[in-house]
Each structure stands twice: as structure tokens, then as C-alpha cells.
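Running low. Got one?
___
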Amino acid sequence: MDLLEAAGPGAERRETRMLFVGDDWAQDHHDVEVQDETGRRLAKGRLPEGVAGIARLHALIGRHLAEDAGPEQVVVGIETDRGPWVRALVAAGYQVIAVNPLQAARYRERYSTSGAKSDAGDAHSLADMVRTDRHQLRPVAGDSDTAEAVKIVARAHQNLIWDRTRQTQRLRSALLEFFPAALAAFDDLDTPDALELLAKAPSPAEAARLTVAQISAALRHARRRKIPERAAAIRAALRAEQLPVTPAATTAYAAVVRAQAGLLAALNGEIARLEEQVADHFDQHPDAKILLSQPGLGPVLAARVLAEFGDDPTRYADAKARKNYAGTSPITRASGKKKTVLARYARNNRLADALHQQALSALSASPGARSYYDAIRARGTSHHAALRQLGNRLVGILHGCLKTHTPYSEATAWTQKATLDVAA
């Protein structure tokens, strides 16, 4: 099936004003199907990934598209919104719709409930889906190159932080099994002073031989305060009695701790370097000042918010659309006499995490945000639910600021009427 198959005799000679392409992608190939406005299959086949494949797709579309029609008359449905292939489709001027895999799976059930699945069948479903329901789907945003660069470094920075958390938990688990005194000595295992001392003395016997001078030197390297008090407390904790572990197990665990400490130290250095790249790329964006003016947003969080929202001015029709994408707005389930309002859990987790941290920080950065949160809590709403509502309001404020190209204003954002309405 490497060669494209036409739908029938004369199919190559027929021209249509609108083409609908379903693209089921894999790592090294793409199964595609081309339909016209009536749903008639014009061609299908398998294309290789890369320059050769995209050239063959352009040629295929050109054979079936009317001479007076432009690339905007081509609608492509694909289950991803990133990668060189998608960028090539957008650059060609096609309307590219990134279909959620869950939506595609549900749509496929319209044809068959048996659970049968094939790549060619998925390409057919995607083509049919964008032909009939494209008004319900979200096209791939035309973000600027600067916003794309911010997304790359911001996501990589967050991935390294998540990796550090996983490695820290593994280190904690190892210490808990043979050296629990270290957990009492260090509040945070991923700090430079804790990692330096654990790399130097990864076993209870070695840690007990650490001097106050050695501990103080590590604290000075980490720029800690109250060094004499801290050094004395750490030395006492490391010398505390604990249940014995066999010498063989201790030696093995010590090797694991030393390796984990070295890995975490390397991660800390790369995270700091990548954070500088995040700030540098973010500062080059024209909306950077507007985002930084929002309460609770610093350079890193603001970069994450920009990366996940994008900067295509046509992507969000109104504040509600932005809130829905952010996952901060609730969903309503109504059936008969029963009606429930629930939080959205199908959402962009990176964006949701950034907005949650913004809402938490805004409680101390904005008097209006604090009053809004307190009014919600006064109704008996839980802390996390109140933070979600505050985050939802902050997304609406951000949308207004970006739409009007104006920085945040405390007086404009938090009118007395808004707070009274929440309290009521």
C-alpha cells in the first residue's frame, strides 16, 4: 500500500473546491485518505515520514484541488499538534485540525462497535470527521516563532523539574531503608548542601565522622544562614542511633545514594541553566510585560502560561474559550431533574499546574484576589475549589489584558461589585 490508490476511473481528472484529508500518523509513515465535499474518497495510501512524504502529499492534493482554489481550501485532520510534519502542513497554508485521540476513538465507534481498528480506517474516520464536524474542532494555532521557542524551553525546564522530583523520591526511599537519620538531618534532599554532604558521606558510619567544619563548608557553599546552629543540628541528627543494617547492604545502599546525589546535583545545574534560557526567550516576546504584570506570575510561570496558551490572536474567541482550554471553568452535567457542576479534569496539565501556582501566589500579591478568595471560602467552599475559581477569574483578567494590550490594573480587575456578587 506504499503507492497511493485512486478511488476509481477518472478520479485523477476530477477537481473539487474543498478537500478533506485524514492523516493517521506513526513514527515512520502516514496513512492518508482524501475526500471531497460529498464524502467521496478520492485517494488513499501510505506516505513515508519526511520530505519525500510531504512532497507526495502536496502532489496528491494538487491533482484533486481545483485550479482556482488555494491551500486554505484543504482541511487536514491529524491526532497531534506538533512536529515537523504538522509545521510543514501549516506552512503550506492548509487548515490543520489537531483532533484529540479520545474524540477520534469515540467518532470511530459511529462506524463500528466491534472494536475493529486499522490505520487506513483511522485515516478515513479523521477525513470524515473534519469534513462533517470541523466547526466543532480546534484548528492548530498559528503561534509565532518566539512563542514556539518559549514553549520548547519552558516544557523542557518543567520536565527536568519533574525528573528531579522523581529522583529525589528514589533517594528518599533508599535513605529510609538504611539511613533514616539523613532524612531527619536534611529538610530537602535536593538542596546543594544536602547533596554535597550525602555524596561525601553516603553511609551512617561516614556521616558520623563528618566534622562541624565540613558541614559548615557545605552550608556556606549553599549560601545558608545561621550556619553554626544548622551545622550543630545536622551533626547531631547524623549521629543519632538507628537500627543496624548489614555491612553488605550498607555498602550497596551507599553506592546508590552517592549515584543519586550526583545525578540530582547535575539536574540542579541543568535546571538553573535552562531557567536562564526560559527567561531570555520569554523576554523577547512582545506580551512579556503584560504577563509579568499579572499577580502571582514570575518569569518562569509566565513563560509556562504563554507557552501553553500560545499567542495566536484568533485562537480564543472570548474569555470563556480561553477558560475552557485552561480547564479552570467548571462543566455542568444535567439529566432530567438532576444537575451537577464539576471541575474539569480533562485538560492541559502543564497549564493547569501553572495557573494553580499563580492563584496560590496571587493571594499574597493581590488584595483583590485575596478578597475574592475569602468571599468564596466564606460560602463553605474548600480551599482547592476556591483556588480553581480564583484561577478561572485570573484567566479572564489575563484574556482582557492581552486583548486590549494593557498591563494588569488592580483597581480595574477587582471591582467592588465583583467581590459582592461572589459573596452573595
